[in-house]
Write a structure and sequence with these properties.
Helices cover 28% and strands 22% of the residues. It is α/β, with parallel strands linked by helices. It folds into two domains: 147 residues, Cytidine Deaminase, domain 2 (3-Layer(aba) Sandwich); 188 residues, Dihydrofolate Reductase, subunit A. The strands form two sheets. The protein has an eight-stranded mixed β-sheet with strand order 10-9-8-11-7-12-14-13. The protein has a six-stranded mixed β-sheet with strand order 1-3-2-4-5-6. The longest helix has 14 residues.
């Protein structure tokens, strides 16, 4: 039986990041867009389900003003930057990581605000994939006589907005699978215990991943074994909605949560309808294997501890039968690595070309 989907997030007071830089300096398009990307990072935890956007305005006087998206219902990044610049917007250049919107939702169209501000040039990172926006914002600005240039640091912006872009294109959340493992590939001992494989720095990193996610999912077995809360602790950010695959006790600490007994595909479709941009999978090797084998994982975050289980009786990263021959090997690509205390984080994404060639 599927439970009704309840809001489980704990909202915290987060700082609205608007910075006004009075120091005059000469910046080119790449440098200005890099500042906008940095500003967008500050909105990552507060803007969802809206995209986290950064904007920079450079007036003829050489000052630099930037803004980032606020919480839903609040001003978009363009509006905040325009307010910060004041009358200096006349004749200025605006840099925005994402195409400005040209429709009225909870707020008015940013394109009209840019036009009214007297801005004469707009540099855009990427086109907004949202069908309500895509191309319309750029067209509106050009119709108003504003010079629009597209594609500055587009690769960086695309990576930064990957969950948002994926959601708008597929109507499903971007799925991040996180697993902690020993160097010999074990995620739990033979008795099922798994706390703690990694150290404090890696565990704090998991808190950040939770804060960046709109929902987190585990299996009922993990809830029964570890009784987790899956809330955000020790870092800034809202706790994600909590989902359990299967049925659990009303006394479990993860409550209130959604208990899901349908298919994973249906779950992703449902979450997508509810504007969940990123789903963090924190389950054990059975849940991990289910998402992996159905090809539903967009990003794998592996935390490797400098430890060995010393045998083959512990639990692996994925439970169940694996490949029968090397030609069936799943191949991804490493997109980043970093040291987390004594542990190592490796982020892997599907290698779509390799998968296509195998098929």
């Amino acid at each position: 039986m599927r439970a009704s989907y309840a809001q489980c997030a704990t909202r915290r007071s987060l700082t609205l990041h608007v910075v006004r830089r009075r120091k005059r300096r000469t910046v080119n398009d790449l440098q200005a867009m890099q500042i906008a990307i940095t500003a967008a990072d500050r909105a990552r935890l507060i803007s969802r389900p809206n995209p986290w956007v950064g904007v920079v305005i450079v007036p003829q006087s050489g000052e630099i003003f930037d803004g980032s998206t606020s919480r839903v219902g609040g001003p978009h990044a363009e509006i905040l930057a325009i307010r910060a610049a004041g009358k200096l917007t006349v004749g200025a250049t605006i840099y925005t990581t994402l195409e400005p919107c040209d429709h009225t939702g909870r707020t008015g169209p940013c394109t009209q605000a840019i036009i009214d501000a007297g801005i004469t040039r707009c540099v855009v990172g990427i086109v907004d994939p949202d069908e309500k926006v895509s191309g319309r914002g750029i067209a509106r600005l050009r119709e108003a006589g504003i010079t629009v240039e597209l594609g500055v640091l587009a690769d960086q912006v695309t990576e930064q907005l990957a969950p948002y872009i994926h959601h708008r294109k597929t109507k499903r959340p971007f799925v991040v699978l996180k697993m902690a493992t020993t160097l010999d590939g074990r995620t739990a001992a033979a008795d099922g215990t798994s706390m703690w494989i990694t150290g404090e720095t890696a565990r704090r990193r998991v808190q950040v991943l939770r804060a960046q996610s709109d929902a987190v999912v585990v299996g009922a077995g993990t809830v029964r074994a570890d009784d987790p809360q899956l809330t955000v602790r020790d870092v800034e950010g809202d706790s994600p909605r909590r989902i359990v695959l299967g049925e659990i006790s009303n006394e479990a600490r993860i409550n209130p949560c959604t208990q899901w007994t349908g298919s994973l595909v249906d779950l992703l479709d449902e979450l997508g309808k509810q504007d969940v941009l990123q789903l963090l999978v924190e389950g054990g090797p059975t849940v991990a294997a289910s998402f992996h084998r159905e090809g539903l994982v967009n990003q794998y975050v592996l935390h490797l501890a400098p430890a060995f289980s010393g045998g083959n009786d512990g639990l692996g990263v994925f439970e169940g039968n694996g490949i029968t021959t090397m030609s069936e090997l799943w191949r991804g690509r490493i997109v980043s690595t970093q040291q987390l205390g004594d542990d190592l984080e490796i982020i892997i994404e599907p290698n779509l070309k390799a998968q296509e060639n195998k098929e």
